[in-house]
Amino acid sequence: ATHMVHAVKRFSPGRLALWMVLLFVTAVALVPFIMMLVMSTQNNYEIFSGASFRPGDHLMKNLESIASVNCPRSMLNSLVIAVGTTVLSVFSSAMAGYAFAKWHFKGKKVIFFMVLATMVVPMEVGYVAFIYQMRLMGLAQTFWPLILPNVANAAGVFWMTSYMQDGVPYEIIESGRIDGCNEMKIFLQLVLPLLRPALYSLSVIAFLGSWNAYTLPMLMITKSEMFPIPLSIASLGNMQIADYGARILGVVVGILPILVIFLLTSKYVAEGLTAGSVKG
Fold it and tell me: What are the Cα distances from residue 87, in Å, to 12, 19, 213?
């Protein structure tokens, strides 16, 4: 009888309605991905003939097309750029956040406001000057112009500053200073271990942003062997007709690493996103 009561409560009308809504939202969210998988097996004519969930017979031809642009090399290029961007961006954001959250120095509020003010200025505004600067420094046709701009991550600095204000007790820092540790040793050995949820979240966001970047690589990279995955996908086809089936298959291949990373880190990302709301 007790089990029957629990079963009735579990499948109450309100709970059933909630499950129906969640299933509907899930189906709506999955339809574009299913269509993308289907269209990756079709050619241009089948794609533009109308929405269809019937797979085509051009999968092998589309695979040959993405192989012709050396997709594995492009994925390796994207991986190098994304990992370099993530490491430098997260580390610099954490160091800046530590300074703004735990140090007291003259002009801190003004400097912090100036850092936040850069968030309202689109990066595209400075592309011309940035490209000219990279050429003067001899960094054109390298991966550095795609990595260095992300080191100055104002959003990451704000995130880390907000997290450390409540997430890192002053007592830990003071105990390190009493033991004779310098500030870098305190930061690396005492502060960073406390920032794991925020570090995971910011790392995933930085990695995804770099992996999916298109405009800046298009302006800075002209050698096909240095193309990241978005540029390789965009190059599929010829001057007159774009090979959309191969491009969609390239997108499917390109998002596989992202899905793997998300599945492995989703728990930590959720903890980092919600950590600030549960600190009292």
Answer: 48, 40, 17
The tokens 């920032």 sit on which residue?
A: 195
Residue from 112, 107, 99 nearest 186 by CA? 99
Q: Which ranges in the chain belong to alpha helices (H)?
A: 2-10, 13-39, 44-48, 59-68, 71-102, 108-117, 127-136, 144-147, 154-167, 170-178, 183-186, 196-211, 215-220, 229-234, 244-278
Residue reference for tokens 């956040």: 97
Interatomic CA distance for residues 161 and 158, integer angstroms: 5
Instruction: Report d(CA 214, CA 222) in Å as an integer.
Output: 13
Quote the tokens at residue 194: 């406390």
Q: Are 206 and 123 in contact (CB under 8 A)?
A: no
Distance between CA atoms of residues 258 and 99, nearest Å? 32
Q: Residue 279's pLDDT is what? A: 47
Answer whether 229's CB lies under 8 Å from 78's CB. Answer: yes
Residue located via tokens 């993405």: 66
Residue 66 has pLDDT above 60, yes or no: yes
Q: How many CB atoms lie within 10 A of CB 227?
A: 23
Return the structure tokens found at 57. 């017979």
Q: How many residues does the chain have?
A: 280
- Is the pLDDT reported for residue 130 higher than 80? yes
As given in the structure block, the two tokens for residue 67 are: 């192989």
Q: Is 32 helix (H, G, I), strand (E, B) or coil?
A: helix
pLDDT confidence bin for 157, thresholds 50/70/90: very high
Tokens of 52: 């269809």
Q: What is the pLDDT of residues 215-273, one digit of tens each?
A: 899 989 888 889 999 998 888 766 567 788 888 888 888 888 888 887 877 776 666 65
